[in-house]
Design brief:
255 residues, alpha/beta, eight-stranded parallel beta sheet, 8 strands, 18% strand, binds zinc ion, TIM Barrel
């Protein structure tokens, strides 16, 4: 079994064919999908999808790209739902916006506090902002856990994230030609620190690059990790699935 630990199936891109997307995922042995919220509307839709589909679990949060339009006020109530398994996607994005950094930081720290309070893991987004996000989490070391999703920093930072008690999320870019640093990270760090994700509908792995991404394609990420680490695909599936269950508690191994 594979678990896609990061997919935005709660976006317009999947409005027409969610059922087909999920059955293609199952055909690739993807038996659980975490649907990731980014603001109030997408959080509620993620929960709705989790309620109507056994294989879907939800996360709720306020993404740094939505801090102007969404506050964290609605989160507490949603966190009570039994299929909500994490807080996020939250974090910092200094690629798209730098001018509202203080607001991004405030909203991120509110969610770290919530994670501490509820013991739920964090799904953290960083873009050109690993250092800043790391500094926000550091005071909570040992009190919060989670994943640095779609990891895009260097090996040194990957090791710091692991030391903080976090997993490293590996996505489609590991299959791209210019992925030298990511390949080095996957080679160097133990598989027990890695989660596999798609970030659907974005960042489709090779050979689907440029098309809409979907959870079934996470198998391309698994295959690439196996190739890099000289392991069997089964080994990679088994360990990364175990990691996902350990972090997110997805309700047993039954299919
Ligand atoms: Zn995402």
């Amino acid at each position: 079994m594979i678990i896609d630990t990061h997919a935005h199936l709660n976006t317009d891109e999947f409005k027409e064919d969610l059922e087909e997307v999920l059955s293609r995922a199952k055909a690739h042995d993807v038996m659980r999908v975490l649907v990731i919220g980014m603001d109030e509307a997408s959080n509620k839709l993620a929960i709705e999808q989790a309620k109507t589909h056994e294989m879907i679990f939800a996360t709720v949060g306020v993404h740094p790209g939505y801090v102007d339009s969404s506050t964290t006020d609605h989160l507490k109530e949603l966190l009570n739902d039994r299929k909500v398994v994490a807080i996020g996607e939250c974090g910092l994005d200094l690629h798209w916006r730098k001018d509202n950094f203080e607001l991004q930081k405030k909203v991120f720290i509110e969610q770290i506090e919530l994670a501490k309070l509820t013991k739920l893991p964090l799904v953290i987004h960083t873009r050109n902002s690993f250092e800043e996000a790391y500094q926000c989490v550091l005071p909570y070391k040992g009190e919060v856990k989670g994943v640095f999703h779609c990891f895009s920093s260097d090996l040194k930072d990957a090791k710091r994230a692991i030391d903080l008690g976090f997993y490293i999320g590996i996505d489609g870019p590991i299959t791209f030609k210019n992925a030298d640093e990511l390949v080095r990270i996957v080679k160097e760090i133990d598989l027990k620190h890695i989660l596999v994700e798609t970030d659907s509908p974005y960042l489709a792995p090779m050979p689907h690059r440029g098309k809409r991404n979907e959870p079934g394609y996470v198998h391309n990420v698994v295959e690439k990790i196996a190739e890099i680490k000289g392991l069997t695909i089964e080994d990679v599936k088994k360990q990364t699935t175990q990691n996902a269950f350990d972090l997110f508690h997805l309700g047993g191994f039954e299919k």
